[in-house]
Write a structure and sequence with these properties.
Two copies of one chain form a homodimer.
Chain A: H1 2-8, H2 12-20, H3 27-40, H4 46-53, E1 58-63, H5 69-84, E2 88-93, H6 101-107, E3 114-116, H7 121-130, E4 136-139, E5 151-154, H8 156-169, E6 175-179, H9 185-195, E7 202-205, H10 210-222, E8 229-232, H11 235-247, E9 257-259, H12 265-270, E10 274-276, H13 279-295, E11 309-311, E12 314-316
Parallel strand pairs in A: 1-2, 1-3, 3-4, 4-5, 5-11, 6-7, 6-8, 8-9
Antiparallel strand pairs in A: 10-12
Chain A binds a DNA duplex through residues 1-2, 10-14, 16-17, 20, 22-26, 29, 44-45, 47-54.
DNA sequence: CTGTTAGCGCTTTCAG
DNA sequence: CTGAAAGCGCTAACAG
């Protein structure tokens, strides 16, 4: 910048201000400076700027695993909103990074704030502690322990409801629910929603993997349970269920209806009836919230408990649900 | 750090050196300093460090679109290798960011180097220019124009070969090849590999989307072409082909074999025979190469033309290929 | 409207 | 083995 100032025949202060617009500069001077900047293709060193005013135009996104399509979409949303605000995004997968690396990113000032999606209880606890001193937004899954941190989640309850109503309308009376982990609010809310239409449905708890869907539906089949539809906790579980059903020679959807949750790319490929979670939209909102938080950081008013912001979901009816063949 | 120094009763210089290990410190002093650092949970401000010595422990990864599973896996690999070296990764999707945002990231010193996967010719050109001054590694797709930039790609030629040989061994004699864009080296090499077994196979050029697979195989069918198998340029195209074939009432694999390329999650879900590209491994190698480049930056020896480093691929035989029903 | 100057927090000579 | 002091490139008072 010294260079630019000297060549343009002004002081570094002036160059700084034509760049930031933080104080009036005469049009002629500004133009001259701009010309020199252009010519020498000058870009201000970000580290110096950050060192001086504490902000660096970078935020971090912490996801469990970037290769999970759903999280990648959230990341896309965050990136989109960040870019719109002129910020960069550091993506940190808990699965591939040293634990607490992302914590250091915010504590050492590399980033100005953090959007957090991890579900590791240990890390979650540290995030809560961190949120006292730095801007933090929780997305995807509300932390039971941290009601004062701004949070954005999908409307899981409504998603479950939509699924239950859809199946009920198709004439199903006996449903098997294969759910995700009880510890996750999202999973529980989905079940609650489904059970509004199927209050007596049996709930089998799994862990959101295809394997758990495969195994649990197999056990249900083996134990002679009767049901005409299976509502799973997410698409992956549904995938396992479909696989198991195919092996058992049970036709989907004519003999058995199956639903998922998430609407990942596999759902589209398989024609799975599911609930679409607008992952990108969620990322966008989370990032916008974070930006607000960062901008209002100076006026560090204590945040009171606020309910999570809910992102609307949509039912996607495809080829794995059909009218119940033998209404119970 | 001043704080720490004062409390520990030493100078900032000493604190700096117990942290960096750049000069001997007496064990007793070191221990005392460490204790204070622990107690006050001190983390050095990264910006100051970067400002002083030019490096910030951050690299950028530029991908076309993070929501494409394949790129997400590459990102995972890059992240893994970066983390192992104590570096952070900024992921930049060309699809969601302002054009050339990533260029600024390296020019303004936010990152120390860049792994680049974009295929926008315009951006590619700028990347080439950039590589003269900053550490750059190309991954996934070699740039025809930039032979002096370290590059790592999958062994597309061998992948094509494996596919061709597999189909030939199954007794197929007439193949239809639905390829990706001719402009991409990866796409062309796959075709070359396949054609070693099917020298006279017709090649239809598409664009790596499911839609193009759907459309092109439809046209081939309509034009009365005879073929017993379809080798596509990637999994997405195969997906479109499968869809079209199902609509046409053609049974896969008994009447028609279909292959993909990439081995994304959809391939596994659909039982698609394909070639596995070790995306994670590629990311790891690209990142390692970049780290070498960064570390050797001081000894800025001119790099001469080096051939791309090839990552081995593997054939994955699943349920969309079978013995040819009617050998021509 | 413009310039001078004092740091931001760290690393690193140069002196003990 | 340890300290004092000079910046890295930028911003923002504080003067003109």
């Amino acid at each position: 910048m010294q260079q630019i100032a000297r060549i343009a025949g002004v002081s570094v202060t002036t160059v700084s201000h034509v760049l930031s617009g933080n104080r009036p500069v005469s049009p002629r001077t500004a133009e001259r400076v701009h010309a020199v900047i252009q010519q020498y293709d000058y870009v201000p060193v970000s580290a110096a700027r950050r060192l001086k005013n504490g902000r660096g135009g970078l935020i971090a996104l912490v996801v469990p695993d970037l290769t999970v399509s759903y999280f990648a979409h959230v990341a896309k949303g965050v990136e989109r909103a960040a870019d719109a605000a002129g910020l960069g995004v550091i993506v940190c997968s808990v699965s591939t990074n040293a634990p607490r690396r992302h914590l250091d990113l915010v504590r050492d000032g590399t980033v100005d704030g953090i959007v957090h999606l991890s579900h590791d209880p240990q890390i979650d606890r540290e995030i809560v502690a961190l949120s006292a001193d730095y801007p933090v937004v929780i997305a995807d899954e509300a932390l039971a322990t941290a009601t004062s941190i701004p949070t954005v989640t999908a409307d899981n309850l409504r998603g479950g409801r939509l699924l239950g109503e859809h199946l009920a309308e198709l004439g199903h009376r006996q449903a098997l629910i294969i759910a995700g982990p009880e510890s996750l609010g999202s999973s529980s809310l989905r079940v609650v929603g489904i059970r509004e239409s199927f209050p007596t449905a049996l709930v089998l708890r799994g862990d959101f993997t295809a394997e758990s869907g495969y195994r649990l539906v197999g056990e249900a089949l083996a134990s002679g349970l009767t049901f005409t539809c299976v509502a799973t906790g997410n698409d992956d579980q549904a995938l396992g269920v479909l696989r198991r059903l195919r092996e058992a020679g049970i036709d989907v959807p004519h003999e058995m209806s199956v639903t998922g949750f998430d609407d990942g790319i596999v759902a589209d490929a398989l024609g799975l009836t599911t609930v679409h979670q607008p992952a990108i939209e969620m990322g966008v909102r989370a990032c916008e919230l974070l930006i607000e938080l960062i901008d209002s950081a100076e006026t560090a008013e204590a945040r009171s408990d606020i309910p999570p912001e809910l992102i609307p979901v949509e039912l996607r009816v495809r080829r794995t649900t059909a009218r119940a063949s033998s209404p119970a």
